[in-house]
Amino acid sequence: LHVSLQEQVGNQSTIIEERTCDLQLAYESLKKANEELEVLDRAKLEFLSIISHEIRTPLNGIMGFTGLLKQQVEVPQLMQYIDYLEQSAKRLEAFSTKALLITELRSGYYKSNFQSINLGLMLKRIVANLEEEYRAKMFQIEFDEQFYLVFFNADANLLELCLEKLLDNAVRYSPHAGIVTVQSVSEDEVLKIMITDQGHG
């Protein structure tokens, strides 16, 4: 009986050692995979940083020359081509900026920069950009003049990206010549921004 108990204890110890070894191997495998993912994230961020910089350099030249051409060209059809070229360059520039921002957010490298923001001026800028992109839809974005009196601290890059995405979505799914409204409600020092469109859903 004594020998049998010793054998059972010995077997259990062996099983525990084997399981401990398996867990250690699994841990090391997960640790290695996590380190590889971190390396990939850093590489992706560096790649997008390089791409963003390389895109902006020629874009600055394109936008500079389109500005000069608009001052000298008087043929309406040519002016239209220049406008399309300028809009495309601006969209490409905005894309590179947003791609880099989203990558920094996902990888945890983004550093928030809080500052005083005038909501009316921000909305005016976003609406102007959307009007260029969706001019054929003849939509309207309406927001109260009171927005120009609204100042608060926030990260301008993140807030503008958020509002632009919401308004872009509202315009995209609005009917032709539809109306998108932006309203605000202040409750207990919390500002709520509501965007409403006439699309389905």
Secondary structure: elements and pairs:
Blueprint: H1 2-72, H2 76-107, E1 114-118, H3 119-133, E2 140-143, E3 151-155, H4 156-172, E4 179-187, E5 190-196
Helix pairs in contact: 1-2, 3-4
Short summary of the structure?
The chain has 201 residues and is an alpha+beta fold. It has 4 helices and 5 strands.
Report on this model:
β4 and β5 form a beta hairpin. The radius of gyration is 28 Å and the shape is elongated. It has four helices and five strands. With 201 residues, it is α+β, with helices and mostly antiparallel strands. The protein has helices spanning 2-72, 76-107, 119-133, 156-172, and strands at residues 114-118, 140-143, 151-155, 179-187, 190-196. The longest helix has 71 residues, at 2-72. The strands form two sheets. Strands 2-4-5 form a three-stranded mixed β-sheet, with helices on one face. Strands 1-3 form a two-stranded antiparallel ribbon.
Outline type: elongated
Distance between the termini: 75 Å
Beta content: 5-15%
> C-alpha Rg, in Å?
28 Å
What percent of the residues sit in helical stretches (DSSP H or I)? 55-70%
The main sheet orders its strands as 2-4-5
Mean pLDDT across residues: 84
Uncertain parts: none
**What is the β-strand count?**
5
N-to-C SSE series? HHEHEEHEE
Helix count, per DSSP? 4
Oligomer: single chain
Structural class of the secondary structure composition?
Answer: alpha+beta
Q: How is the main sheet built? A: 3 strands, mixed
